[in-house]
Amino acid sequence: MAGYRLISPGHSERESVMRVLSIGAGGVGSSAAKIAARRSFFERWVVADYDVGRASTLVAELADERFVPAQVDASDADAVAALCEAEEITHVLNVVDPRFVMPIFDGALKAGVDYLDTAMSLSARHPAEPHSQVGVKLGDQQFEQEASWQQAGRLALVGIGVEPGLADVFARYAADHLFSEIDELGVRDASDMVVTGHHFAPSFSIWTVIEECLNPPVIWERDKGWYTTEPFSGAEVFDFPEGIGPVEVVNVEHEEVLLMPRWVACNKVTFKFGLGDEFIDVLKTLNKLGLDRTEPVTVKGVSVSPRDVVAACLPDPATLGDRITGKTCAGLYVTGKGKDGSPRAVYLYHVADNDWTMSEYGTQAVVWQTAMNPVVALELLAAGTWAGTGVLGPEAFDAVPFLDLLRDGYGQRWQMEERAAP
């Protein structure tokens, strides 16, 4: 893609000292700040939230003069740009839910700063054939602005959480170092985590969970391009490592399927997630009752979104850490031909143990695992090891510096298992 270039590790093209505006002080935003607090690559980290009290509480907990709180309306691109200018920001990290992607994205471009996110602009169903044809795809609104980011000489690094994010880095690594031909890039995610004290308590934003799981899943194939299927389709049992074991996974709409084919040569890309029958039943019930809707309804003279009501009735995922036990696994299953031309299958993965993330950082595993990756990416950008202009996914960059820093700088083991080739 135009604007993509690699900078050799250790070579710095640093324009200035890094000053980060991190928008969102929820689970992922708090985890990102706590991870970044142990690193020295930035001068300033502004924690911004609509609720400035939440941002201030986090900053007080960190007790690090590099961190300051701020109030911002993430739905207002002009407000985002103004805060960037006031704080002399160089990089915006968007860690709020994806309905705010575009105003933050636009605000960063208006301010002339670089941008990172962990989820991409929202999709819209095909009006006539939602379970076979794509409508507006995840990230389409962002990629439509590729030329503007190019002309501005700025970078929008999209989808740099764990999934999307680390899984996409694994795809680049597999293509460059493990395979001569790739048949399928299959993201496979599951956990054995249990939340005590609640009948139903997602470990991630329910707003985002509903968006991902009830939208028609997207699949990409070389001969067909992108197409959709029924929610929760394509069930298969995948054997997850480190004691999690066999879990049934199903198709879910996710950004990796929209990102990987743009930069990595392969025949097919899929995303499957282990949700469990009870979780799926709850989501289907919410859908039947219309409680997944985002369009406001009027209740006793008050206009409210049904999905916002559901979110308000459930516990904040950021507060669940001390009630969670177990591990979460994010990974990429790759099949094809190895460098020697023989059939090969590998599973590249990272596991986060909730007991460890809580004891080490005071945050639960799912949000911590998501937050780790944009911080690693920011450090690579600060050093000039990663660089580029335009709207780029993680696949557009050399995977080795990222995986090395993840392991050696952040103490996180990423693993690879050889599997029986299909």
Q: How would you describe the overall organization of this protein?
A:
With 422 residues, this protein is α/β, with parallel strands linked by helices. Helix content is 33%, strand content 26%. The strands form four sheets. Strands 7, 9, 10, 11, 12, 13, 17, 18 and 20 form a nine-stranded mixed beta sheet that branches. It has a seven-stranded parallel beta sheet with strand order 3-2-1-4-5-6-19, with helices on both faces. A two-stranded antiparallel ribbon has the order 8-16. The radius of gyration is 20 Å and the shape is globular. 49% of the residues are buried. The model is unreliable at 1-15 (pLDDT under 50).
Query: What is the residue-mean pLDDT, rounded to a whole number?
Result: 93
Could you give the distance between the termini? 32 Å
Characterize the largest beta sheet: strand count, sense, and whether it forms a barrel: 9 strands, mixed
What oligomeric state is this?
Answer: single chain
Per DSSP E runs of 2 or more residues, the count of β-strands stands at: 20
Structural class: alpha/beta
Gyration radius from CA atoms, angstroms: 20 Å
> Share of helix among residues?
25-40%
Strand content: 25-35%
Number of helices: 14
Shape estimate: globular
- Residue windows where pLDDT falls under 50 for at least 5 positions: 1-15
